[in-house]
Write a structure and sequence with these properties.
By secondary structure, this protein is of the alpha/beta class. It is built from 16 helices and 16 strands. Helix 5 links the parallel strand 8 and strand 9.
C-alpha cells in the first residue's frame, strides 16, 4: 500500500511536501517524497488529496472507565473534596456502566486521532473483552490501592500479576501495573512493585498531583494528611520528603516508569526524575480543572525529562455550556499551548507522539513515521504551506479524516 498526501509529517524528520508512506502488512517500509517512489508503486497508490499525514497520537494517561462520569463534578475547592466525590460516584455505577463508558471513551479517542493509549484500568474484569471492542493500541495499567481495605501488599500485587498473565498480550494489547498514588498505597506495595518490574514491565503512578499531597509527604500535615489518617492510613511515611522522593526511596523511579502529573516538585525533584530516566505525563485540561499550581515544564525540560501528554478522565474535565466533554488529545495540546506560549507547536506535537511512545516502551514503533514502525497514522485536512504545518495540526478541531492502526483502516478515508 502506498499513501500519498500533500504533506507527510514523520515527526522524527522534517515535513515532506507531496510525500508518501509505503506500507507492507502492519509496518511502514518507506517514507519519502512522492517522486522517490517508482512508477509502478505510484500507479496503484491511494491519493489522500489535500491532507497532512502524520503518526497517530499517543495518549500517555487516560481513565477510560470513567468516561460516563463526564460533567458529573464541578471544579472542587480542594483536591480531597474531589477524591471523596469520585469514590462515592464509583459506588453508584455498575460494571455495565463502566464497560459502556470504556467503549464510548475509546471511540472518542479514535475519532480524534489517538491510536495508542495508556489506560488506567480500575476494573480488570473488563479485560480482555474491552480490548476486542476497539482497534486502538492499548496498554492497560492495572490499578492497585491498599490503604483502607487492609489487604496485604503481596496479595494485591500477586492478584494483579495473575490477571496480567491470564491476558492474551500481543502487538496491539499489553498490560502494566499502576500503584495508584503514594497517598493511596503503602511503601511496601511500591517497593514490591519496583522489585518485580525493574527494567521489564511498564509502571505508572499519579504523583505530586496536588499541593495537598505535597504538604502531606513533605511536611506530614494538611487536609489530605488528616483525611487519610481518619481513614486509618498509617502516615508514618510522611514528613520525610517530597512525593517524588518517596517513590525514589521505594526504588520505583526508572526508565520503565511514568510519573503522572508531577505538578508540585521540591528542589532537586526534576533532576532526580531525569537521572532515573522516568517520563512525566502532563494532563493540561485536568490540571486546569483543579487549578493546580503551574506545571513545572521549564524545570523538567531543562533537566532533560521525557515529557508527554495525556487526557486523564472526563471526570476531571470541566463541562462548558452547550458542549459535551470528550477525550481529545488535540484539546490537550491546545490547552498546553495556551499556558506555555513559548513552547513551539512542533515540541508540543512531539509530546503527543514520539515522547509518549518512548515513555511506553514503543520508541521506533509508534509516534513517528519511519521504516519498521507500525503503520499507525492519521490524516487531517490541509491546504496551507509546509512551514505552517505544525501550527495547523496543533489547532485542528474536527475529527480526523482517516485513521490507520497496524496497517488497517480504523477510519477509512473518503477518496
Amino acid at each position: 500500500m502506498l499513501l500519498r498526501a500533500r504533506i507527510v509529517v514523520p515527526i522524527s524528520r522534517p515535513p515532506i511536501a507531496d510525500g508518501a508512506v509505503k506500507i507492507s502488512g502492519q509496518r511502514i517500509v518507506a517514507v519519502g517524497a512522492w517522486k522517490s517512489f517508482s512508477a509502478a508503486e505510484r500507479r496503484h497508490a491511494t491519493d489522500l488529496g489535500e491532507t497532512v499525514l502524520l503518526p497517530g497520537l499517543v495518549n500517555a494517561h487516560c481513565h477510560l472507565d470513567y468516561t460516563g462520569m463526564a460533567g458529573e463534578f464541578l471544579p472542587p475547592r480542594h483536591f480531597t473534596d474531589w477524591l471523596k466525590l469520585i469514590v462515592a460516584a464509583k459506588g453508584s455505577h455498575s460494571d455495565a456502566d463502566f464497560a459502556a463508558g470504556w467503549r464510548a471513551g475509546a471511540q472518542m479517542l479514535l475519532r480524534t486521532g489517538t491510536t495508542t493509549v495508556a489506560d488506567i484500568e480500575a476494573l480488570p474484569k473488563l479485560l480482555p473483552a474491552a480490548w476486542q471492542a476497539t482497534p486502538l493500541r492499548i496498554i492497560s495499567f492495572l490499578e492497585m490501592t491498599g490503604v483502607k481495605n487492609r489487604r496485604p501488599p503481596r496479595v494485591i500485587l500477586q492478584e494483579a500479576v495473575e490477571k496480567i498473565q491470564s491476558l492474551p498480550e500481543n502487538s496491539r494489547h499489553r498490560a502494566g501495573l499502576s500503584p495508584h498514588a503514594p497517598c493511596s498505597t503503602t511503601p511496601e506495595l511500591l517497593r514490591l512493585t519496583a522489585q518485580l518490574t525493574r527494567h521489564r514491565r511498564r509502571v505508572t503512578t499519579h504523583v505530586a498531583e496536588s499541593p495537598e499531597e505535597f504538604e502531606m509527604f513533605m511536611h506530614g500535615r494538611g487536609k489530605m494528611f488528616d483525611w487519610l489518617r481518619r481513614n486509618e492510613r498509617d502516615n508514618s511515611d510522611c514528613g520525610l520528603g517530597s512525593p517524588v522522593q518517596h517513590l525514589a526511596r521505594a526504588g520505583l523511579l526508572g526508565k520503565n516508569f511514568l510519573a503522572v502529573h508531577a505538578n508540585c516538585l521540591a528542589p532537586g525533584d526534576a533532576a532526580l526524575l531525569a537521572r532515573s530516566g522516568a517520563s512525566v505525563v502532563h494532563c493540561p485540561r485536568s490540571h486546569s480543572f483543579f487549578a493546580h499550581p503551574k506545571f513545572p515544564y521549564a524545570a523538567l525540560a531543562a533537566a532533560g525529562v521525557n515529557l508527554c501528554l495525556g487526557t486523564d478522565s472526563l471526570a476531571s474535565v470541566e463541562k462548558k455550556r452547550g458542549q459535551t466533554p470528550e477525550l481529545n488529545l488535540f484539546s490537550e495540546m491546545r490547552s498546553f499551548a495556551r499556558k506555555h506560549p513559548g513552547v513551539s507547536a512542533e515540541t508540543i506535537l512531539r509530546m503527543a507522539t514520539v515522547n509518549g511512545a518512548r515513555a511506553l516502551g514503543l520508541a521506533g514503533k509508534t509516534g513517528e513515521l519511519q521504516p519498521k514502525a507500525f503503520a499507525d497514522l492519521i490524516a487531517l485536512p490541509f491546504t496551507g504551506k509546509t512551514a505552517a504545518v505544525h501550527d495547523t495540526i496543533l489547532h485542528h478541531r474536527s475529527e480526523v479524516t482517516a485513521s490507520m492502526i497496524g496497517g488497517k483502516w480504523a477510519i477509512a478515508p473518503k477518496v
